[in-house]
Each structure stands twice: as structure tokens, then as C-alpha cells.
Amino acid sequence: xxxxxxxxxxRDGGGTNTLRIYESLKPVIGAINGPAVGIGATIxxxxxxxxxxxxxxxGFVFAxxxxxxxxxxxxxxxxLVGMQTALEWCMTGRVFDADEALARGLVRSLHAxxxxxxxxxxxxxxxxxxxxxxxxxxxxxxxxxxxxxEHPMHAHRIDSRAIQARxxxxxxxxxxxxxxxxxxxxxxxxxxxxxxxxxxxWQEPGFE
Length: 208
Prior knowledge:
49% of the residues lie in helices and 12% in strands. The chain is built from ten helices and eight strands. A three-stranded parallel sheet has the order 2-4-7. The protein has a three-stranded mixed sheet with strand order 3-5-6. A two-stranded antiparallel ribbon has the order 1-8. The longest helix is centred in the last third of the chain and has 16 residues, at 152-167. The chain is globular.
């Protein structure tokens, strides 16, 4: 079979999309309003935070259709909700409500339908207004990738390099200065040009 890399076009369009979300250097916030079943459920798994309306419904219904998980959900779902819940939802294939999604950790909060998008935008605004974009981009990739590492030493290596690189940046001078002067920071570094030299520290696996 022809080898494909992450991001190449492949017949599993859902997998291509979830892997691109996984690779994102920007925070990804989901706002789920209504039914999210099948690909509607799996496409949101690599998002960093998911908010749902009280009318949302979820379902990993693949086994009820004679197929299996897709869009790399077998990797993402157990990390979000634990193996037991992931197995239950996928083996039964049942559709469940927003309260269960919240109780089991699939979503962070529930909102009235008309309050959902304002809540998601407020969360995005909190990140955008108060944090350094380069630090957020690094943090996103560190948490997603290193939480699955086989030993904490892998995380320690990257943590050490990241804190050293950020510690001599213009962003840290601005962040400390803003704190001392009791003002909002205006971080100068940009993700497009300010990522540290060791980034990325991984090599994407090919598709075989």
C-alpha cells in the first residue's frame, strides 16, 4: 500500500481531519448543540475543550451499524473519558444525553442552547486576551503528545528545553513587567516566527 503522511488525502476523511486538529498550534474549542453521532462525535475528540448545550446528544454508534471506530477515536476517546467508559459507549453504541457526557468527562460544561456560543467565545477570549500565543502553542502540543509518552523523562526533556527557551524570550519580559506594573500584557512573540529551535521535537509517523 502506498505510504501516506499525516495531512495527506486518505479515504478516511474523518481521520485526516482529526489529525489536523491534533497538529494545530492554536487552541480548538468545540461547541456542541444538538445531535453529535458517529463522525459528529469522533471529530470533536481532539479538540482541547468541548462545551455542550443541554439539548446535545452523543453516540459512538458504529457497532450498531456493523462497523468500527474511525477518525483515530480509539486513541483519543480513552484519554478523555477512561477505558471503561470508552468501551461501554462504543460496545453498546447507544446515544446518550449531555448530562452523561458531562458526568463522564467528555464535555467541560453544559449551557442553555442560546448561551452556548457566547460561553465558548468567552473561553476563547480569556485565552486570547491573557496568554502568550507561543506559550499556548507549545503547551498544547506538550500536553497532547507527552501525556502519552512511555516515561516521564520524555516530558522532562521537553519541559526543560521549553522553559529555558521561553525564559529568555521577549514574552517573559513582557509578562513579568505587566504583572509588576499591574497591567494587561501585550506579548510580542508570534507563533509564525517565535517557536523555539527544538520545535517540533517529534517525527510524524507515516501511514502504511
